[in-house]
């Protein structure tokens, strides 16, 4: 009952943040005009509400869900509460592919950039698996290989930025993570894909619970550990890759949301995954809202806001993990 209450509270907070996000901004929309802006094409606020802010809010919800659930899966697989898509190099791989596209194909259509980012995430996954294969995909090995791989991708990004300074602003905007300019084209891609992947993740929640207790116990319960870990890792990478392809390299959502969900409802993924999804969406909505209203008419990329929120919390988690040892 208490766990269900947390989910309801999270959804109510999401609705409130959506309303505020549609209302607030450089051009404020009064509450009595939001409904007409959503439904009446003749309304003066229709374009801003329906064509600018509503798709932006929708992308934030689905991307936040994707990053949070991807992080929750990784934390269960690696048995490390400080894991996230950033830690194993997935975000860096997607960013490298996106930055390479920005610099090498500056005139490419809009769909090329997110496709390149998703491809970069999947290539990162393949490299991670190939480098860890001889060591049976052990959690510690995956984490260490991911950190090293992320450093290599980050070096590649720096190379492009130094070599092609003309497009550095676009690359920095992508690497900071931003919801600026997101429209219905992105919503129509990210919403169904994240929904399907989330349903698949919920169907594997019990396997995640078993894998958390260790390989020996998992094998004694009849679980094919290597195969299931590889499949669930692919699922996590796919969710993170789709989210990053839509909003850029936004950090800390995949770390904070699963950890907060675990603090609220425990480590059973039947509840942890949906709670993490809601928290991730709320964090991204809040970060985007703050980024749009702090320095009106300018806009702070949402990735910077989430980093300002997430970095102190990450330091707190590190300190707590050290005290518990």
From TrEMBL:
TM region positions: 59-78, 87-105, 111-130, 142-166, 186-205, 230-255, 275-295, 302-319
Membrane topology, as annotated: Multi-pass membrane protein
Cellular compartments annotated: Cell membrane
Cited InterPro entries: ABC_BtuC-like, ABC_transptr_permease_BtuC
Top-level lineage group: Bacteria
Keywords: Cell membrane, Membrane, Transmembrane, Transmembrane helix, Transport
Pfam families tied to this protein: FecCD (PF01032)
Principal localisation: membrane
Family classification: Belongs to the binding-protein-dependent transport system permease family. FecCD subfamily.
Name by which UniProt lists this protein: FecCD family ABC transporter permease
Organism: Paenibacillus enshidis
């Amino acid at each position: 009952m208490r766990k269900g209450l947390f989910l309801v509270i999270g959804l109510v907070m999401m609705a409130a943040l959506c309303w505020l996000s549609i209302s607030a901004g450089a051009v404020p929309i009064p509450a009595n005009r939001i409904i007409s802006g959503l439904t009446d094409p003749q309304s003066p606020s229709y374009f801003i509400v329906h064509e600018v802010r509503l798709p932006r809010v929708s992308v934030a919800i689905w991307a936040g869900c994707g990053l949070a659930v991807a992080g929750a899966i990784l934390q269960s697989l690696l048995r490390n509460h400080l894991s996230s898509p950033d830690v194993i190099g997935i975000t860096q791989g997607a960013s490298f592919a996106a930055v390479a596209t920005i610099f090498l194909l500056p005139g490419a259509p809009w769909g090329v950039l997110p496709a390149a980012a998703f491809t970069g995430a999947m290539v990162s996954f393949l490299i991670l698996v190939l480098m860890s294969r001889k060591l049976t995909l052990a959690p510690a090995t995956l984490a260490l290989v991911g950190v090293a791989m992320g450093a290599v991708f980050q070096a590649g990004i720096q190379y492009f930025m130094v070599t092609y300074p003309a497009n550095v602003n676009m690359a920095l905007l992508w690497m900071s993570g931003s919801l600026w300019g997101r429209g219905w084209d992105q919503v129509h891609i990210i919403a169904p894909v994240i929904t399907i992947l989330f349903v698949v993740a919920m169907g594997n929640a019990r396997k995640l619970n078993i894998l958390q207790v260790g390989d020996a116990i998992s094998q004694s319960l009849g679980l094919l550990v290597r195969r299931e870990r590889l499949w669930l890792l692919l699922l996590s990478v796919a969710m993170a890759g789709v989210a990053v392809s839509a909003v850029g390299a936004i950090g800390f959502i995949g770390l904070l949301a699963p950890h907060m969900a675990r603090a609220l409802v425990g480590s059973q993924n039947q509840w942890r995954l949906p709670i993490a999804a809601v928290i991730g969406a709320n964090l991204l909505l809040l970060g985007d809202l703050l980024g749009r209203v702090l320095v009106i008419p300018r806009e702070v990329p949402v990735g910077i806001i989430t980093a300002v929120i997430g970095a102190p919390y990450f330091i707190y988690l590190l300190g707590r993990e050290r005290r518990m040892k």
